[in-house]
UniProtKB/TrEMBL annotation:
Record lineage: Bacteria, Bacillati, Bacillota, Bacilli, Bacillales
Record has Coiled coil as a keyword: yes
Segments forming domain Myb-like: 1-56
Organism: Geobacillus thermodenitrificans
Regions annotated as coiled coil: 53-87, 123-174
Name of the molecule in the record: RsfA family transcriptional regulator
Length: 216
């Protein structure tokens, strides 16, 4: 079986899926992901987009939804960081009172450390990212096993096809031999002016005609 030169391999599909999911999590566009994969695989962005929408996307529906959730969480985290930075800058730029100045405080001191809730939120985000990576890894392993099963099935079908083709050749040869016997029967009937039955002709071909005639 011939393989098209533009056919996608399993590894290329996985690269396309992982790149698109990464871009979704980071809030980037899928078009940018297609362009990135196209540069790596020497394909056009349009070809990558068509492959994603036609074949690959439906295999990663759960992963896509998870990536969108992570994108929202990432966006919220970035907004929180910006808010903290803004508040820290406001505190830094404010003029300290005399008491704090007397104690040696400075407006250029770093902002207050993160709270326990903020640390927990950050760790939870890391855990979700790790779970997502594990999901993608398991999906990759499942697709590898499925590919191996299809390859084995393909080999079985190829062997069956070879046997059927060999059997067809045998039937074709038997058919051609029968046509030759019938043609010879017509020639004998025309030459001797009598009709030969097909059974007599077959017996004559196998050298067994005299035996049944001796008992008649």
């Amino acid at each position: 079986m011939k393989t098209r030169q533009d056919a996608w391999s399993h590894e290329e599909d996985v690269l396309l899926a992982e790149t698109v999911l990464q871009y979704i999590r980071e809030g980037k566009t899928q078009l940018a992901a297609f362009e990135e994969v196209g540069r790596q695989l020497h394909r056009t962005a349009a070809a990558c987009g068509f492959r994603w929408n036609a074949e690959v996307r439906k295999r990663y529906l759960d992963a896509i939804e998870q990536a969108k959730k992570q994108r929202k969480e990432r966006k919220r985290a970035l907004e929180m960081v910006k808010k903290w930075q803004k508040e820290a800058n406001a505190i830094t730029l404010s003029v300290p009172d005399k008491n704090t100045s007397a104690e040696g405080s400075s407006p250029f001191l770093p902002a207050a450390p993160l709270t326990l809730d903020q640390c927990i939120s950050f760790l939870q985000t890391l855990r979700r990212d790790a779970e997502q990576l594990e999901t993608v890894r398991q999906e990759n392993e499942r697709l590898k096993r499925e590919r191996a099963e299809w390859q084995a099935r393909n080999e079985q079908l190829a062997q069956k096809l070879s046997r059927l083709e060999a059997r067809q050749m045998t039937v074709q040869e038997d058919y051609e031999a029968l046509i030759k016997i019938m043609t010879r029967a017509r020639q004998l009937a025309s030459e001797e002016g009598e009709r030969f039955s097909l059974a007599h002709l077959l017996l004559a071909e196998t050298g067994e005609q005299n035996e049944p005639m001796a008992h008649s």
